[in-house]
Amino acid sequence: MGGVDGLTAARRRWVMLCILLGLGLSSLGSAIVNIALPNISRSFASSDAATVWVVNAYQFSATVCLLPVASLVESLGLKRVYTAGLAIFVFASLGCAFAPTLPMLVSARLIQGAGAAGVSVAGMAFVRVIYPHHMVSKGFALVALAVAIPGALGPTIAAAILAVAKWPWLFLVNVPFGLTVPPFIAAAPPDVRIARSLDLIGSALNALAFGLFVVGVGTLGTGDGRIATGEIVAGLFCLGLFVRQQLRHPMPMLPFDLFRIPLFTLSVWTSVCSYAAQILAYVSLPFLFETRMHLSAVETGFLLTTWPFMTAVTAPIAGRLTIRHPASVICSIGLALLAVGLLLMVFLPTTPARWDVVWRLALCGIGFGLFQTPNNTAMMTAGPVGRSGAASGMNASARYVGWSLGSALVSLMFGLGGDQGAVFCLVAGMAFALAGVATSSARRFR
After folding, report:
1. Which residues are in the Major facilitator superfamily (MFS) profile domain (predicted)?
2. Is 192 left (phi over 0), alpha (psi -120 to 50) or beta?
3. Tens-place pLDDT, residues 149-173
């Protein structure tokens, strides 16, 4: 049976295989495309700035869809939302592969991001339902592996595909894997559903608030302060309207009941800070390596793999530690290590030995791995099992909001810092990691 006792081991394995495959595909969908952007730009004879929207559209769509999808989880059930999300993701992959123009490709990526939101929210909620309470941290450790490994191998897989085929095959590779999932999901427990309808007004305000704010922060980096300020103010205004509308809604998308639990709220803020720190480093380090240290793109790719690889190695260890020690302690130690690693990257010499770079990135990866599983476990188990869909929605929202905020800040840092933009980003990442230490540590007193 599902619920607090979870599933039997045999049924749980089949459902977890389905969940991990879907989450792995959604993570790969985000990581595999970056390296192909120059090829896509040449294919459509488009500018680099326009082509970047192939990546941004996916991330933006996934973010704004998370809260609406979380509400659908409770009204339609985990099985339906997960299966629909994966189906949308797979069919949108076909749309990406056969897109005749760049706008069509960006549109298909928007749809693909919406499918990824369904997979992310329902997948995380499934873990809470199918595992016994004392084993749930092991399930989230497997989720961390499913997300980290495709993130680590994404550039390598993309390079291997592009060596023998054209960029559309980066999307076609999703199709056969996605089609194998439906038989496995049948082993999942019956859904418990709540009668509720999709809040269209709230969904629109959520998209406007997020989109305007993030675009505004990014616009600051271009030097057009008047437009950027207007976008940020408009985003904050829409955010206020969204919160007000949700407070009056009989069944809000924002889980106010969960936010009344201090452990949950602090875990959300810890997640936002940590993922902002991660993306600030991920985006800025290639510029540091290729511009300041004059490394090739291939060398940069191999060096950067160290971080997600060590995160994947650390994730199961963190899962076991979570059973014995408070999540607040493990997360705080991990984020402190991340902050130290980022600070050490700032003080790299101009021509360091490769090992000097690798061990610093390994420290960042270990720190991030120690944070991820305990924080996910704390957030997902803070509330009742019946609110797993809402908790999963906020879990994914915190991750994507952190990534999007960090990405927008990269534009600002490079606009303000010029040649030192990458260093500014690493310092900002360190500051976010330390803020995460503070919010995580505060959980000890709640």
Report:
1. 15-446
2. beta
3. 786 677 677 777 877 888 899 899 8
* Position 310 pLDDT exceeds 70: yes
How many structural domains compose the chain? 3
Say if residues 435 and 273 touch (Cβ distance below 8 Å).
yes
Q: Which residue carries 């709540």 as its tokens?
A: 194
Q: What whole-number distance in Å separates Cα of residue 89 and Cα of residue 98?
A: 14
**DSSP code string of 343-402:** HHHHT--SS--HHHHHHHHHHHHHHHHHHHHHHHHHHHHSS-GGGHHHHHHHHHHHHHHH
- Contact (CB, 8 A) for 282 and 311: no
pTM over 0.85: no
The 10 Å Cβ neighbour count of residue 359 is 13
Q: Which amino acid is at 282?
A: Y
Residue type present at position 209:
A
CATH number at residue 85: 1.20.1250.20
**255 lies in some domain:** no
Is there a single domain that holds both residue 318 and residue 440?
yes
Helix (H) or strand (E) holding 100: none
Q: How far apart are CA 364 and CA 313, in angstroms?
A: 12
Structural domain of 228: 200-250
154 in Cβ contact with 117 (< 8 Å): no
Which residue intervals of 165-224 are DSSP H helices?
A: 169-172, 174-179, 182-185, 200-220
Q: Is 246 exposed, middle or buried (0-12, 13-18, 19+ CB in 10 A)?
A: buried
Please tell me the predicted confidence (pLDDT) of residue 4. 43
Torsion of CA 119, 120, 123, 124, to 10 degrees: -170
Instruction: Please tell me whether residues 65 and 106 are part of one structural domain.
Output: yes
Compute how many other C-beta atoms are within 10 angstroms of the C-beta atom of residue 108. Answer: 23
Asked whether residue 97 falls in the same domain as residue 233, the answer is no
Give the three-state DSSP class for 101: coil
Averaged pLDDT, 140-147: 78
Distance, in Å, from the CA atom of 357 to the CA atom of 305, rounded to the nearest integer, reads: 12
157/176 Cα distance (integer angstroms): 16
Q: How distant, in Å, are the alpha carbons of 282, 332, 350, 367, 396 from that of 313?
A: 18, 19, 29, 11, 22
In sequence order, what are the residues at sequence separation of 6 or more whose Cβ sits closer than 8 angstroms to the Cβ of residue 268?
259, 379, 394, 395, 398
Write b or e for each residue in 177-187: b if 16 or more Cβ atoms lie within 10 A of its Cβ, otherwise e: bbeebeebbeb
